[in-house]
Amino acid sequence: MTASVQPQSILQPPARAAMFLVLTVRDGAESEAVDLLADLPGLIRSVRFRRPEDNLTCVAGIGAKAWDRMYDVPRPASLHVLEEIVGDKHTAVSTPGDLLFHLRAERMDLCFELARQLMIRLADTADVVDEVHGFRYFDDRDLLGFVDGTENPEGNAAAAAVFVHDEDPSYTGSSYVIVQKYLHDLTSWNAISVREQELVIGRTKLDDIELPDADKPSNSHVELNTIVDDDGVEHDIIRDNMAFGEVGSDEFGTYFIGYAADPGVIEQMLRNMFVGKPPGNHDRILDFSTAVTGNLFFVPTADFLEDGPPETAADDDPAPTTSTTEQDTGSLQIGSLRGTDQ
Ligand code: HEM
């Protein structure tokens, strides 16, 4: 007999709408926060069932400090507070955050309704320190006008990139997520030519084709975010950035969200962007974009949320395997994680 591990709904096709809620948990309210996370799958089902075709999902993440307060088991191997990264010109800030809720759907009303239900439950437990309502802009473009998300891995490669496997067996099927809220200086951005913008990103603007190596500057966004190790293996992450903004206050932003089995891959990308590779050769996207938040969260499995830490939940059957669900099947093949039959 095998136990099955149900990941949260990380691998999703691009949704039209998203909400990003970062909260801090009040002192003394830790057990209420744990209870809410246990009820999260049920709350999602309640709202989702009203419009199943609009594919409402919600991924919950837990910050390092909150983990220590909420659970009696050791932190997952790579969970820590995001370190601030200070470059010559630009800084990746690290800001408070105990819980992340990443809500996605084809319609904002579903995200909003689930967020409302979450906050009814969390009213005396947690405080929202950042809330962003994101929308998918034309052709999946960000507000810089470039198609965003093209090089995300798919299928087995996506599952391999985001889910913890043997490296931390107690947490198979879990993941890590880093979020950063960026504000763009669109006036400066739009003052440079389209060709110049293409050299900043490393892809063409209209057609979204990667520039040939000979034309791609070493400080382009794409070049600095391609992580290849000493063995020539490329390390991928899954991104699902969303545009947000307020025209009245000249606010134009990108909410960056990146999932990975090893958050060190995203942190390496951040060092390349902010410190530069080599140092000083920073990502030119930062000359037009300022990171105003930054957090790292652990994303446990759905089973963990409902049942608690695996040591207590799976005493009678400790060898986990993953299973597929309706939400996570399709081209994304989470089922490829299956395979530790006893
Ligand atoms: C690629 C936009 C922040 C990691 C891209 C692309 C765009 C883009 C337009 C090219 C198309 C694609 O493959 O998606 C942005 C914007 C950001 C931002 C507007 C915020 C201002 C970040 C951050 C990271 C990151 C903070 C990681 C820490 C990546 C990666 C790629 C990529 C891994 C694919 C590189 C490749 O293999 O070609 N981004 N990005 N991005 N970005 Fe970002």
UniProtKB/TrEMBL annotation:
Its cofactor is heme b. GO terms for molecular function: heme binding; metal ion binding; peroxidase activity. Residues 303-342 are annotated as: Disordered. Residues 8-136 form the Dyp-type peroxidase N-terminal domain. Residues 304-318 have a biased composition (Acidic residues). The keyword Iron applies. InterPro entries: Dimeric_a/b-barrel, Dyp_perox_C, Dyp_perox_N, Dyp_peroxidase. PROSITE patterns: DYP_PEROXIDASE (PS51404). Residues 139-303 form the Dyp-type peroxidase C-terminal domain. One of its GO terms (cellular component) is cytosol. Keywords: Iron, Metal-binding, Oxidoreductase, Peroxidase. Belongs to the DyP-type peroxidase family. This is Putative iron-dependent peroxidase.
